[in-house]
Design a protein that fits this description.
The complex is a heterodimer.
Chain A: E1 5-10, H1 17-26, E2 30-35, H2 36-41, E3 51-54, H3 68-77, H4 79-87, E4 91-95, H5 97-105, E5 125-128, E6 136-144, E7 157-164, E8 168-171, H6 174-182, E9 186-191, E10 211-215, E11 221-224, H7 251-264
Parallel strand pairs in A: 1-2, 1-3, 3-4, 4-11
Antiparallel strand pairs in A: 5-8, 6-7, 6-9, 9-10, 10-11
Helix pairs in contact in A: 3-5
Chain B: E1 20-26, H1 33-45, E2 50-61, H2 67-78, E3 84-89, E4 102-108, H3 115-126, E5 138-148, H4 152-163, E6 169-173, H5 201-210, H6 217-230, H7 236-245, H8 248-251, E7 258-261, E8 271-273, H9 276-279, H10 281-288, E9 293-295, E10 302-307, E11 310-318, H11 320-325, H12 327-343, E12 350-360, H13 377-395, E13 399-406, E14 415-425, E15 438-443, H14 453-456, E16 461-462, H15 465-468, H16 478-493, E17 499-502, H17 507-515, E18 521-524, H18 537-542, E19 548-553, H19 558-567, E20 572-578, E21 583-588, E22 591-597, H20 598-603, E23 609-612, H21 630-638, H22 647-650, E24 661-663, E25 666-667, E26 673-674, E27 678-680, E28 689-695, H23 698-703, H24 705-723, E29 730-737, H25 744-764, E30 768-774, E31 778-781, E32 784-787, E33 791-800, E34 817-821, H26 832-837, H27 851-864, E35 870-873, H28 878-890, E36 893-897, H29 912-918, E37 925-929, H30 934-941, E38 946-953, E39 957-961, E40 967-972, H31 973-980
Parallel strand pairs in B: 7-23, 12-13, 16-31, 18-21, 29-30, 36-39
Antiparallel strand pairs in B: 1-2, 1-3, 2-5, 4-5, 4-6, 7-8, 9-10, 10-11, 11-14, 12-14, 15-19, 15-20, 17-19, 18-20, 21-22, 24-27, 25-26, 27-28, 28-33, 29-33, 31-32, 34-37, 34-38, 35-37, 36-38, 39-40
Helix pairs in contact in B: 1-4, 10-25, 12-13, 13-16, 16-19, 21-31, 24-25, 24-27, 27-30, 28-31
Classes of the chains: A alpha/beta, B alpha+beta.
Chain lengths: ~270, ~1000
């Protein structure tokens, strides 16, 4: 198995690049952290990758709306390169702000004819203000679902922290949800610790049907609000002093599956 | 003389702006939580007629843009196709009247920082939507639409109290005018002299007051004498530079000054300090001379050794006055400023944790009793929490520790302390400017914001502070600072500069003045990048515009250094050179606007002598009355303002970012137990950690400032020890916020506290490594001046030998033993129990400086040996509150036997049960130990005072037995938890 090559993309306000890169490295990916300015100048770098991660943070301060500006920059500067990358089997992960960016970029949508990405004004999903109307930093339980993403193992429960102000997943109307389900695009949802349906605070933002993460119809593009890269070590779980000895945090397995999938190409 | 007065606003809000206007309203009320928040806030304010509200986000764009471009900006960048309804108006087009709703427009005044507008301007250029040369101007506003039975007075009240801060914002009620454009330019001038050699005292003081220089008569005399000697008049720039450099905020004139002690109770013989700071706080550090102290007191933060070649540094700042006037902006720029201290310590450190502590008025303070010109404590607290949240979270630095203290003494003068911990390689601990190095300013542009912040924070607030000091308020732009951080650490590691400092109080004048103190500097003020044209040379020089750092860059590295900043979209400009002349020279275009000796600037401050005395409050000793209803009292104390859950604040801070934390602010089964301190693991390849904790108790200080300071240090240290910090490798920081120390009684309290700091630091062997004081926290209404309680915040930074050994405060398993470590005595002066009874006076808790360090060492031994399952410090509310917190945090019950509590000499008028339950004696811990580990734990504590006082139960019941062995009270942990969470939650 060759070492997959991963690129963690950052820009002004990105702040999860270091721990995200560490997760990928620990899991065996050859990882580079790169500023958006460089990728805009050298889009061919995408050709040398198996994994592209849009790291979390507050790109451009969440000004206007979380992920809006970066999403627009991808539309204007990298649309064709991104489409080509995904079409040839490249994997994309967006975490927290990275998820917001992916939604804004149109990469989850099916492009129209002669377009690389979905049209900005035709977007029918959004991530917006939490129901509590403020930033929420807390641990939640994520359930992975049967979906198009080849490296998501359905039925697992994963404790993970969330930290965001605009993470509530909304759709324009019910037909959008039906389409997402039909396309097997709903990848992760918030549940109670026991795995049941979650309400606040287990569902920290009031997302429709507890949706925490989705993928594109091809399954190669995945975005989620929670931060598995903040649960790599045995000592990051909020109750680790009450639990028995632990080898690692549950978030490590999440990244391991991503890296393994990129290495083998199975299902992509 | 108005050498840098802000020009009066010439924009009027009555005119329709000459701009494209876009307003976005949410389609669905559920997506408009600001509106829901307004309805609630209006109710709280007593406005009953408001029935519906919606909040529109508005944008103004240059009229020169073409319609298709504006369309595409609106649809691609501004509006959300799922969530928003879009209204687009052509320049000077009147908006359609909104039916029967009233409209309130709120816009930032021209020149006030508007980060969203800046981001939009940049984005339009970066994406090529508009051409850079088009110089597109953007501004933002909010359009509120309110309906119901609302009078003009109601609307004005809502606007003033909820929607706008008129220090920085313009409001238009039922009018469609909005400000748009650059702020007006000040009258241009080059070199201006301020004739003062011939002036009398009155005229000298008038110059200081009118120019907001905060220089007193003695200082004005020193300046006058200096310029008489030079046989010329000072320039405006020179006078401003002196005012900034000599300000209390920058120079700490009082703390480093001469203090004459009047004979009084604490000093029967009187006495004298030549330099209070050196002889107390710094004295302890020098005497202890710890080899792990790498850099103390002289730099932007204190640095201590951490692990191998890595050090950690810590700084805590106060940002009180700006937060009183603009809580959100003040707190945000407070945290932004202390982060820059860390970026500017040595060669720069990576910020890895923030702390914040607030001292505010009670949230239920009666509105009608508010002093004129003051905001309600609720608005202040919400504002400062949001300010820290929005700045700290955007910086990607976890906010991990802090506290909130409520007291009526802070109604007019809220206190905001912000701290940052940094991580740095050992080689980066020192810096040295060399002549010929370029002076490079990086980060935000300079504008007319924050003029006279340093001198403003050195004077008392008064009713019109809001009006006169609007220019002293700054709005932060955290993403600019994050860009600076990202670029700076790269430049540091490439060694592209030789020295660095932050632009804080006093702006460039302080930063360049400090860096060039031992050599000299020449600055070209016209080379400083400006936000908008029209600043005078003085304004450029002293502006406290945020997010700027100053570097000393060797000539051969300038190009590479500028490239690094450019690659991260950070502006960097060479503005001058360091010299070997010993002079500070400022040029503005072709003119010299200042030329002064560094020596006079830094050492010419006259050292005034101040008098101190202390007369205690003289309360009668109330003894310790028995508690008539233990059940009700404990529920009240668990939910008392100072002990109640602060979870509503903590959850709004990102305390997980960077993935380094090992102990979070809240712990336990439901993560609702208040932990004693945060623990971080800074390096991914090491299991060494650091603990960050704090301690304060201003109510103690009102009775006995000496014992208060001892107790605050003990509290910070015991919090650190409780989570696993090594008391043998712990540094502490002092932050004093005090009343006017020209008053002997205020200064007397300060001297007492400073002496206690020295004594405690020596006894605990915990050196002070950094500190800051804010000594004029008074509020004048008419002839009355209200001082805050003497407030000393102690912050501790302890090394944790191995993070795998850290301990949390939640009970772990039924059947485990509970030990009480330390001695309990009748120390309830300033306690929560006395507050609940309305009692004044009493003995203030303070540690036994012989015994306390031994207890800390022994408990640390026990924790590192692995025989401790849970540990919680006893503080506000005493044993009873600590036990209750451990129980509900662990989801387990507890038997607690008061007869076993180790105590010392209770006077006969002290009820033994009330004392055992609620005394706040220091250096005490509750420790949970497994029965098999009892021997090991007892061996670690050896002959020190401790006792087995209880046992963990499985049934979620806390049961207290009295000192006579009788059942005293029973609680379900649910009612304890509910009480803990029952207080104001935002």
């Amino acid at each position: 198995m060759t070492k997959p090559r991963a690129l963690v993309l950052r820009t002004a306000g990105t702040n999860c690049d270091a721990e995200t890169a560490r997760a990928l490295q620990v899991c065996g990916a050859e990882t580079t952290v790169l500023h958006l300015n460089r990728l805009l100048k050298e889009p061919q770098r995408l050709e040398e990758l198996e994994i592209l991660v849009i790291a979390g943070g507050f790109s451009y301060g969440d000004d206007v709306a979380a992920g809006r500006v970066w999403g627009l920059e991808l539309r204007h500067g990298l649309a064709r390169a991104l489409r080509t990358y995904v079409d040839r089997g490249g994997l994309v992960l967006g975490v927290c702000n990275g998820f917001q960016v992916l939604v804004e970029s149109g990469l989850f949508d099916l492009p129209g004819e002669s377009q690389a990405l979905g049209d900005a004004s035709a977007r029918d999903i959004a991530l917006t203000n939490n129901q509590s109307n403020h930033y929420e930093c807390r641990w939640v339980t994520l359930e992975s679902l049967d979906c198009a993403c080849p490296w998501i193992a359905p039925g697992e429960l994963m404790p993970t922290p969330v930290a965001h102000a605009e993470g509530r997943f909304v759709v324009r109307d019910e037909t959008v949800l039906e389409r997402l389900k039909a396309n097997r695009q709903i990848a992760l949802r918030y549940v109670t610790e026991a795995g049941g349906p979650a309400s606040y605070p287990e569902n920290p933002n009031g997302s429709a049907e507890g949706i925490a993460g989705i993928c594109d119809p091809s399954g190669r593009v995945l975005g989620l609000m929670p931060h598995p890269e903040r649960n790599l070590d045995p000592w990051q779980h909020p109750r680790w002093t009450r639990l028995g000895p632990r080898q690692e945090g549950e978030g490590l397995g999440f990244y391991q599956r991503l890296v393994d999938c990129a290495a083998t190409g199975i299902g992509v | 003389m108005a050498i840098s007065a802000v020009p009066t606003q010439t924009t009027t809000t009555s005119a329709l702006p000459d701009a494209w206007r876009i307003e976005l309203f949410r389609k669905h009320p559920a997506d408009d939580p600001d509106a829901a928040g307004l309805l609630e806030a209006a109710r709280e304010l007593g406005v009953k007629g408001l029935q519906q509200a919606r909040c529109g986000r508005g944008f103004l764009l240059s009229p020169s843009l073409d319609r298709p471009v504006v369309d595409s900006i609106a649809r691609e960048l501004l509006a959300d196709p799922v969530l928003d309804d879009l209204i687009l108006l052509e320049p000077s087009q009147q908006p359609a009247p909104p039916g029967n709703a009233h409209r309130i427009l709120v816009a930032r005044r021209p020149g006030v920082m508007d980060p969203v507008a800046l981001t939009i301007e940049r984005t339009l250029i970066r994406t090529g939507i508009v051409d850079e040369r088009a110089k597109v101007l953007v501004s933002t506003f909010h359009a509120w639409e309110l309906s119901g039975d609302l009078s003009r007075e109601d609307l004005e009240l809502i606007a003033a109290r909820i929607l706008a801060n008129d220090t920085i914002e313009d409001v238009s009620i039922d009018g469609e005018g909005l400000p748009f454009g650059r702020p007006p330019a000040a009258p241009q001038h080059g070199r201006v002299e301020v004739p003062l050699r011939e002036l009398d005292d009155e005229a000298l003081l008038a110059i200081s007051q009118e120019g907001a220089l905060s220089l007193n008569l003695v200082e004005m005399h020193a300046i006058q004498a200096h310029y008489r000697e030079l046989d010329r008049e000072p320039t405006a720039c020179e006078l401003e530079t002196l005012a900034q450099t000599w300000s209390e905020h920058c120079k700490h004139k009082t703390f480093a000054g001469v203090v004459e002690l009047e004979a009084c109770d604490p000093w029967p013989e009187g006495g004298r300090y030549e330099n209070l700071l050196k002889q107390t706080i710094k004295h302890a550090t020098v005497t202890l001379d710890k080899p792990w102290c790498i850099s103390v007191f002289h730099d932007n933060a204190g640095i201590i050794a951490f692990d191998g070649d890595w050090d950690v540094c810590f700084k805590v700042e106060t940002h009180n006055h700006p937060s009183a006037i603009d809580p959100y902006g003040g707190a945000g720029t407070g945290i932004g400023g202390v982060i820059r201290d860390i970026l500017g310590v040595g060669m720069g450190a990576e910020p890895i944790a923030n702390t914040d502590s607030f001292f505010v008025g009670p949230p239920d303070y009666p509105v009608e009793q508010l002093p004129r010109g003051c905001m309600h404590p609720r608005r202040i607290l919400r504002g400062v929490v949001e300010g820290v949240r929005d700045y700290g979270n955007r910086m990607g630095i976890p906010t991990l520790n802090g506290g909130v203290w409520y007291d009526e003494g802070y109604v007019a003068n809220p206190l905001v302390y912000a701290g940052t911990v940094g991580l740095m390689p050992r080689w980066a601990a020192t810096k040295e400017v060399q002549p010929e190095d370029a002076i490079v300013v990086v980060g935000g542009r300079t504008g007319r914001d924050g003029i006279h912040g340093a001198t403003f924070s050195s004077i008392e607030l008064h009713e019109e502070s809001e009006m006169v000091s609007s220019a002293a308020v700054q709005i932060g732009d955290p993403i600019t600072e994050k860009r600076v951080l990202d670029a700076l650490l790269q430049a540091r590691d490439l060694k592209l500069y030789r020295a660095i400092t932050d632009c804080g109080a006093g702006g460039l004048s302080s930063a360049v003045g400090e860096m060039g103190e031992h050599c000299g500097a020449l600055v070209h003020l016209h080379s400083v990048p400006l936000k908008y044209p029209g600043l005078t040379p003085e304004e450029i020089w002293i502006s406290e515009a945020q997010e700027r750092m100053v570097l000393a860059v060797p000539t051969e590295k300038i190009e590479e250094c500028l490239e690094i900043f450019e690659s991260e979209d950070v502006e960097a400009a060479v503005i001058g050179t360091f010299t070997d002349t010993g002079r500070l020279v400022l040029k503005y275009h072709q003119e010299y606007v200042a030329d002064m000796s560094m020596e006079f600037l830094h050492d010419g401050t006259p050292k005034p002598t101040r008098t101190a005395k202390w007369v205690g409050p003289g309360h009668a000793d109330p003894g310790v009355p028995a508690c008539e209803d233990v059940h009700a009292t404990l529920l009240k104390l668990v939910g008392a303002p100072n002990t109640a859950s602060k979870e509503w604040i903590v959850r709004q801070y990102d305390h997980e970012v960077q993935g380094r934390n090992v102990l979070k602010p809240h712990v336990g089964v439901k993560a609702d137990g208040p932990g004693d301190g945060a623990v971080l693991r800074p390096l991914a390849d090491s299991t060494k950690g650091i603990a960050i904790t704090c301690g304060a108790n201003p109510r103690y200080g009102l009775i006995d400032p000496h014992r208060m300071a001892l107790a605050a240090i003990d509290e910070a240290l015991r919090n650190a020890v409780a989570v696993g910090g090594d008391p043998g490798h712990t540094a502490i920081l002092d932050n004093f916020s005090w009343g006017n120390c020209d008053k002997p009684q205020q200064l007397g309290a300060l001297v007492l506290a400073a002496e206690a700091c020295r004594d405690a630091a020596l006894a605990f062997e915990t050196p002070f490594i950094s500190g800051k004081d804010s000594l004029n926290n008074e509020y004048r209404v008419g002839d009355e001046s209200i001082a805050i309680p003497p407030t000393l915040l102690i912050s501790a930074l302890a090394r944790v030998p191995d993070v795998r050994q850290v301990v949390t405060m939640d009970l772990k398993s039924a059947g485990n033993l509970l030990f009480l470590v330390g001695l309990t005595s009748a120390e309830l002066g300033g306690s929560e129990y006395f507050r609940s009874l309305g009692l004044e006076g009493g003995r203030v808790p303070a540690p036994d400086l012989q015994l306390a360090p031994e207890i800390f060492r022994a408990l640390h031994r026990a924790i590192t040996s692995g025989c401790v399952r849970a540990c919680h410090d006893l503080s506000e509310g005493g044993l009873a509150v600590a036990a209750a917190e451990m129980a509900f945090a662990g989801g387990l019950g507890l038997d607690l036997d008061l007869a076993r509590v180790p105590s010392t000499g209770l006077p006969s008028d002290c009820d033994p049960d009330a004392t055992a339950l609620f005394s706040e004696s220091t250096t005490r811990f509750l420790v949970e130990v497994e029965p098999e580990q009892q021997g090991a734990f007892e061996a670690a504590l050896d002959t020190l005072p401790f006792a087995l006082v209880g046992r963990v139960r499985s049934d979620e019941v806390l049961e207290l037995r009295s000192s006579r062995g009788e059942p005293l009270a029973r609680f379900s942990i649910t009612e304890l938890r509910d009480a803990h969470q029952g207080f104001f939650q935002g």
